[in-house]
Amino acid sequence: MPTKEHIAHLKSRKEKSRKLRGHSSFTQAGQSDDKTVLMMVKRDGLTLGAASREQKANFAIVLAAVQTNGYALTFASAELKANKKIVIAAINSDVNGERALNLAAAELREDPDVLAAAAGGGVTACGEVQACNAGCALS
C-alpha cells in the first residue's frame, strides 16, 4: 500500500507536469524559443509534442526529450527517428524499450546496436556495451 508521502510525491509530480504542459507561451503561441523548450523537455519529454516542427528536428531538444521519456521519440522528426544516438537514448530511457524501437526508422530496427539496446544489453549511443544493472552476463 502506498504511503502518504508517496501519494503526495506523485500528486506533486502530476501538478508540475500539468503546469509545464500549460506553459502559456508554449501552448498559446504553439511554440517557444529553443532554450525554453529544451528546459521543458528535460522535465517532461512528452512536451516535445507541443514544440514547433523545427524544434522536433533539433538534435539537442529531441535528445533531451527522449532521455527523459523514450516515448517522446513519437514526436521527433523523421530524420531524428533515423539517428542511432537518438533512438538508443530513447530505448535506454523508455520503460518498454521495444516500444521505442517500434518508433524508430525502419532502417534502424535491424541495426545490431539498436537491437542490443532494445534487448536490454546496455548499449550506449556509440555502440559500446555496458554491464547490465542486474549483474547479468551479456552475450
Number of helices: 9
Q: What is the string of SSEs from the N terminus onward?
A: HHHHHHHHH
The low-confidence runs, each spanning 5 or more residues with pLDDT under 50, are 125-139
In whole angstroms, how far apart are the ends?
A: 38 Å
The residue fraction in helices comes out at: 40-55%
Mean pLDDT: 79
The major beta sheet can be summarized as: none
Integer count of domains: 1
Radius of gyration: 16 Å
The total strand number stands at 0
Structural class: mainly alpha
Strand composition percent: under 5%
Overall, the morphology is: flat
Structure, described:
The protein is mostly helical and 139 residues long. It is 53% helix and 0% strand. It has helices spanning 4-21, 24-27, 34-43, 53-56, 59-68, 78-81, 84-93, 97-103, 112-118. Helix 7 packs antiparallel against helix 8. The chain is flat and about 45 Å long. The N and C termini lie far apart (38 Å).
Write the layout of secondary structure elements.
Elements: H1 4-21, H2 24-27, H3 34-43, H4 53-56, H5 59-68, H6 78-81, H7 84-93, H8 97-103, H9 112-118
Labels describing this entry:
139 residues; 0% strand; mainly alpha; flat
Question: Summed up, what is this model?
Answer:
Helix content is 53%, strand content 0%. The chain has 9 helices and no strands. The model is unreliable at 125-139 (pLDDT under 50).
